[in-house]
Amino acid sequence: MTSTISETREGGAADPPPARRRLPQQGPTLHDELLAALRDYIVEGHLADGARVPERLLCERFGISRTPLREALKVLAAEGLIDLLPNRGARVRELGADELRALFDVMGGLEALAGRLACERINDAELAEIEAVHHEMYRFYLRRDMSGYFRCNQDIHQMIVAAAGNPALEATYASFAGRIRRVRYSANLAKDRDRWGEAMREHEAILDALRRRAGAELSDILFQHLRNKRKAAQAEG
Amino acid sequence: MTSTISETREGGAADPPPARRRLPQQGPTLHDELLAALRDYIVEGHLADGARVPERLLCERFGISRTPLREALKVLAAEGLIDLLPNRGARVRELGADELRALFDVMGGLEALAGRLACERINDAELAEIEAVHHEMYRFYLRRDMSGYFRCNQDIHQMIVAAAGNPALEATYASFAGRIRRVRYSANLAKDRDRWGEAMREHEAILDALRRRAGAELSDILFQHLRNKRKAAQAEG
DNA sequence: CTCGATCAAAATGAATGCAAAACAGCATCA
DNA sequence: TGATGCTGTTTTGCATTCATTTTGATCGAG
Question: Residue A166: which of B31, B78, B105 has the nearest Cβ?
Fold first, then answer.
């Protein structure tokens, strides 16, 4: 990621503007890079919930003027990552339990759709890839390696969405995933051994339905899978 | 709609800026109104497919400067209504057959989700409302009144989405509906008597599943319903 | 006559400037 | 002592300005 936009480090806030480079705007637009950088910055959780997002500060941090920053903020507001209060600046959107549930349900619906579409298009090679990751995930499960398990888990869901071959779906899914990722729902499966096993069984069912190209069935499983995931995450607050 | 933003009429383009009023920014933000106005303007199809969207012109039309307009354009680009080519301005996004199919599929997935959620929450009063519109639609069908039929049809789908009680879903659904509405898919049911009857039967099934609160089943029906709708629309291109 | 290069005009991307609104601190008063 | 009104500062929203790129046209060569 050799981006033009680079965050100056977080700790020392008293940096003089680091001599803005004036490279001749080669390929990608400055605005787009800034947008992506800001989105990552927020999704990664560097800003506290409900925290003000002062323009001035971010301008200095990213070394740009207010105009492109404000454009990016409008887009992020439209995406639902921040709230834009008139004359009162931007705040990181806080997610109440209800909103979080709503987002999870939409994620479930999107995955359900992805599963249905994937059953129509997926070929054996793609399926084999997913199966490979699935087995890797199973090994992590046996070893009780949560971080590895999570990584595989996320990869599988992402691969199903990709297998749907629907760019609009993929983009929407990514957007919702970002909104949810902000939340620290440490769905701590280690403390809930039952849920972990249940999730593993659900994944077996997912793969089985996918192998059989059973679209409607896979759709249901995926939606319920997300539901259960949400419940496990919220139960533990 | 007594909006601050009002389009000057379309025909005469040689209007001098109509003495911009400087009211003290009362309630709603100027930017938001502009955004909504522009979105409507594009969704309503006032701009040809792939047409350039010249900033200057729109600035004069809406009586504002380029800054808020450009902010709105960024948002619309993020929503997928327009393409923003670097240094080459904005163009109304053209939808090829593939993209249109992808959008329809997502709409189908969203409606499927809405149906599932609606089955969990809907009460008898809401159900009765939908049934009322359904019967009204049936009367339009018997009279072969397409425009009335379409209106009811759209209302029903909207009501199902609303009954899901999920703001995020509702917003996403509205966004996709706007993107699709741009397309002139005159799903001319008059010419395809069979499809019209079939659609009517599908709606009967939808209502039946909703009455029985059969979420998964309704989900399938709605997705297939959208699929068939798309096929009918595209068959006639 | 067609194709390519050069140059003026327009449009875009970003920065700066300015007026209005919100915020913070202090003084005043009940 | 606590609430309230005033004032200076900061922040936001929009307009304007500047630099760069694209666009269109004219001219010339093959």
Answer: B105
